[in-house]
Amino acid sequence: MKICLVHNEYGIFSGEEAVVAAQIQLLESHGHSVCRFVRSSTEIDRKFLGQLQAFCSGIYNPFSVRSFRNFLLQHKPDIIHIHNLFPLISPAILHVCQKISIPVVMTVHNYRLICPNGLFMVNGEICEKCSGGKEYFCVFNNCEGSFSKSLGYALRNFVARKRKSYLHGIHCFAALTVFQQKKLVKEGYPIERITIIPNMSQPISEENSTTLGDYIGFIGRISPEKGVDHLLEVAATNPHIKFKAAGRYEKASELVTEAPDNFSFQGHMPYDKVSQFMLQSRLIVLCSIWYEGFPMVLVEAMLRGRPVIASRIGGIAEIVDDGITGLLYEAGNTQDLAKKINYLWDNPKLCREMGVAGRKKALQEYTPDTYYNRLIDAYQKARTISQNS
User: Are residues 27 and 167 in the same domain?
Assistant: First the structure.
């Protein structure tokens, strides 16, 4: 099978980029041919004309439409798999797919089909005001901190919705969680065209997975929606426990100066260092206050035999089995978070038991083989829907 993979890369390497790269490798390892139609946000000139280009191309990019049409005619793929279209590719290419009659699958990495900024969050709080075709709230709330950028985000969602670009141009939506699927259905996307494909991770050796470390770890970007300030608050009231955070903190550098003595920021780490960071921890915490997509840090921790404490929000409860593979707490509730942290910290035997259960679940649900089977099923569904439409 020949698959055309479509993706607008972000300015910096992200979890989504990792998923795309792993998917390509997986498909090719099973004998499929993957042709890539890729643009990168690094192409955008940060000066005014470059920003104007990004503003317009996110709504409609005639150059992408023309080059994509030629690309499809040249490569003649059996399936088109879309990851991200913004800002340089644009949903306008979906009409090309329709005309050439090629089945299309789209992985829904975030909530951008409904919410212009993709987060369902503004000013540190959950916000769903743009749901139901009310994209103008992105401008009213200035969700991007820039009027022109917020306007651009709102307009590109408005135009795509009015033209029904996604409804008519995507045959199968691959949601990451049931929670995400329900949000799409509520917005009018047919449930029979939405399949659930959680992200995958490569299995690793059991070696050192039951040896507990001496600190509580956080891994991810240090930004407001991740709730790291809540973890700092818990650390300040529990000086007997060491906390360490791995991840870029440019967007919240003030947290570094506010950190108590028992909390250290390690900065960005390459993948092999992150693996060691997890293995040297006693447990991993995810304290997000937004809905998340599918936080791979949870699966990676489970594979390494680490229990996880995570906020009960969005689809996280589908990954963490409360009381079995880890503990869930009320999002934003620092007292509840502190209670759960102390409970596990003082119970190393339970930490090991949860770690074993977490690894077992990860090896059943989130392996490349499981992911591949789900992906092929999605391709077949898209083909069937395309033939019947």
Answer: yes
> Mean of the pLDDT values across residues 56-83?
88
221-231 average pLDDT score? 91
Q: Name the strand (E) or helix (H) holding 83.
A: strand 79-84
Give the torsion sign (CA, 67, 68, 72, 73).
negative
Q: How many Å apart are CA 131 and CA 199, to the nearest integer? A: 25
Is residue 73 one of the residues assigned to a domain?
A: yes
Residue 128 lies in a domain: no
Chain mean position to CA 232: 24
CA atoms of 382 and 377, how far apart (whole Å) = 9
Model pTM above 0.90: yes
Could you give the CA distance from residue 195 to residue 218 in angstroms, rounded to a whole number?
Answer: 30
The domain that holds 267 is classified in CATH as 3.40.50.2000
Q: What is the tens place of the pLDDT at every residue in 17-69?
A: 889 999 999 999 999 999 999 988 777 655 444 455 555 566 777 888 899 99
